[in-house]
Amino acid sequence: MTTVTDIDARGTQHCETTALGVLLRHQGLDLSEPMLFGLGSGLSFVYWDSKNMGFPFLGGRVKPFDITRNLADRLKLELLIQETTSPRKAWDSVAACIRADHPVGLQLDSYYLDYFSSKIHFGGHVVAMYGYDDHKAYLVDTDQQGGAVSTSLTSLAQARAARAPMAAKHRSFTLTTPTNPPSPQSQIVPAITACAEAFLHPPIANLGHRGIKKAGKLVRTWFQRSDAPQRDLPQAALLMEKAGTGGALFRNLYRDFLAECADPLDSSHLRTGLTLYAEAATLWTEVAGLIKKAGESGETQLLEQAGTILGDLSHIEREAMQALSRLDRVP
Question: Where is the Butirosin biosynthesis protein H N-terminal domain (predicted)?
Fold first, then answer.
């Protein structure tokens, strides 16, 4: 068995921040999961639907791997990305990292992983790999999936080669900290304001606060959108609360990030944003509960209620991001 030494195989709530935590702790940089998510400007919203989708998807974060890119840019980390169409080259690259005592991040389709509890194709899943033997790969995934886990080398190869939604070409990556990195605290304001600007000025109506408003209108029609609402609506609610989001469609993580920033920043704008995101997190969990109950009961009025709350959330989050966008302008 070949493994990285002194690995801290700690699973957390979201897959990409879990992997980032493993890689960075091995470099001596231990940041909380909310801080990793926030410094990566991870919060967003997307209402995603198309003709080839069985049911709409509500997303609460930026695109897969954007958190990693943003975090590396902010903290001046050396981000080395490997992509290839060759399964052999892909494996050789990862095995070489492990032999060199470097944990490596992998983007893959979670459907094929032996231990994965929810069999849904998703090519934007991220894990950290820290070892292998003749039969298995040893990974760190979220707490929900078991933290330190293993999967067969065959299943890992299938997961990396898959062409699921958001998939990459056998993507693997490593992170290296510079000799004199910027302090994470110095990057809090740029990370928050960048996230706020993207949320407030989305290029299309499916994103940001405009996307939440759109979702508030369309969620009311979900009984007509689904051939099996008893299946699709509870699953949509489950994805909002349990699928590595930290609850409340990532709003719990961002609330906790803002709370962690409150002392070093001591800003009225940040306190406003924190108060509003604490309210938003509670309401997102309420929305998920209404959608779940609607699917189970068939009551259309529950989707009407969810739509009304989503309309309120569009205004609440817009107000929160407007306050947070002022962090770099006014003390």
Answer: 14-142
DSSP alpha helix (H) spans, the chain = 15-26, 33-39, 66-74, 87-99, 153-161, 188-200, 208-218, 222-225, 229-241, 251-265, 268-297, 300-324
Q: Which domains does the chain have, with CATH numbers?
A: 2-30+78-176 (3.90.70), 184-324 (no CATH)
pTM: 0.95
At residue 164, does pLDDT exceed 90?
A: no
Among 105, 122, 113, residue whose Cα is nearest residue 166: 122
End-to-end CA distance of the chain: 54
Buried/exposed 30-54: b ≥16 CB within 10 Å, e otherwise: ebbbbbbbbbbbbbbbbbeeeeeee
Written as six digits, the tokens of 259 are 């709370």
Residue 330 pLDDT more than 60? Answer: no
Amino acid identity of 24? L
Alpha carbons 31 and 38: distance in angstroms, whole number: 11
Provide the β-strand partners of residue 43: 61
